[in-house]
Amino acid sequence: MNHAPTTPYAALGGEAAVRRLVDRFYDLMDELPEAYAVRKLHPDSLDGARQSLFEFLSGWLGGPPLYVQKHGHPRLRMRHLPYAIGPRERDQWMLCMRLALAEEVADEGLRHALGEALQQLADHMINVAPATA
């Protein structure tokens, strides 16, 4: 029996699952003291960030290209240049994302693959040298 290859979007559970992942991610960013540096890069309300990440991840995961339809090419690094993102902010972003993935993605293989791919994206967003202590 031939099965068409499934997208990560479909494997995750589609729109509702992506929304849950994004909501949990930003809830964690809001709640965890360990995420303070990355949280303070965001406005008081995370509503816009939630919507943007949801739209981006939908297309990035192989679902509807909502972000591209609304804003054009993501140009992630360029869009993040106004924010000072160093290894600390990247690590805090990934802490929230890995915890959200652990809670929201039951499939271990999918969770690992998404974590690795998101780590590469997060690494690419670094635009400042690490602070020296």
Automatic annotation (TrEMBL):
Transmembrane segments: none
GO molecular function, one term: oxygen binding
UniProt entry tagged with the keyword Metal-binding: yes
InterPro entries the record matches: GlbO/GLB3-like (IPR044203), Globin-like_sf (IPR009050), Globin/Proto (IPR012292), Hemoglobin_trunc (IPR001486)
Domain of life, source organism: Bacteria
Coiled coil: none
Pfam families for this protein: Bac_globin
Assigned keywords, A-Z: Heme, Iron, Metal-binding, Transport
Family the entry assigns: Belongs to the truncated hemoglobin family. Group II subfamily.
Name of the protein in question: Hemoglobin YjbI
